[in-house]
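Students often ask why we bother encoding 3D structure as a string. The short answer is that it lets us treat folding as translation between two languages. Here is a chain of 335 residues written in the first language.
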Amino acid sequence: MKTVDPKWLERVKKDFANSPLLPSPPDSRDFTLSSVVKAEKPTPRIAKLPQSPIKIDQGNLPKCAGSAIAGIYNAYYNAIGELPKGGFSDDYAYQRAKQLDGIPDLDGTYLRIVLMIALHEGICSKAVWDKYKRLCPETIADAKKYKIKAYAKLTGLSEIKQAIADGKYLLLGSQVTTDWTKPPTKEDGYIGFPPQGHFVGGHATYAYGYDDLLRNVRLGYILGENSWGPGWGDDGTYQMPQDFVGYTIDLGMAMLMEVWAVEFPMDVPVVTEREVEMTVGEQEVYLNGEKITIDQSPVVDKNTWRTMVPIRAIGEMFGFDVKYDEKTKKITIKG
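And here it is in the second language, the structure alphabet:
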């Protein structure tokens, strides 16, 4: 069992007593992205890694840290074609973390401990965990087959974008407010900014991409997946405004508490551009392979034989702000 800093423990018991995710205790041995990358490289405006086909639902259990690392494993091993049946066990990751984190009297745990487990011991597949349903030699042996290569702590938006563009999934620790559990976020996954509602605690998720061109209440989003099942957000996924990075709430608490890059032995493909595919007469449009329904289909003008496309829908897909003035009949496109 890990020995924890008494000052850190006093703080989390005061500020995070009932939180499922706790801030990781300080550790000078942490690698940072700047310590393992020689120079910052230019990043594309869009970078997206393969997503997980499995939508985890943690229910009412305080195991979000385990669910987030299991979600990353599901996404990575699916991308390389080696996903075990049922994916990976968030129960294993959480229970092993609680066995080692040094705070058995608190339900929550922290991200560094699940990363240390993933690095040194691995994460058990769900099929093997479901067979034994406990920490035992068999589940621990299965976990050893699935280890990460490294992890690094990130600071700032540029490092977040650089890590994703380099093909690394991110483990995120966020402060969550009650607006996450209500429309519109609950229905479309777009997290509002600035955050509204009451603070309810820390929560772990994982990020698989970013999009500087995506526009909703803000321009530029981090793309991630939650562990509240497919009925929450956009099929279990969310879009977090990049403004959250560095944003603080009461008493100077960072809304995005900590971010870690996770490196696996093999690379995964990274999508770094937008492609829109549409068919004349059809309202279904595909943005990078994802189906979107628009209210006006493309048409061919029978007089000029020119193809007419809905400019607002297409413009917004590429990150432009499209406005129409009813009085002057002028269309303004900014981006």
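Translate back mentally: The chain has a mean pLDDT of 90. Keep this in mind for the problem set.
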